[in-house]
Amino acid sequence: MRYIEGSFKQPIPARTAIPDVAYYETDAFFPANGSYHCFHTCNCWAANGLEDAGVKVPWFSPLPSTVLWYLGEQ
Question: pTM of the full predicted structure?
Answer without folding.
Answer: 0.76
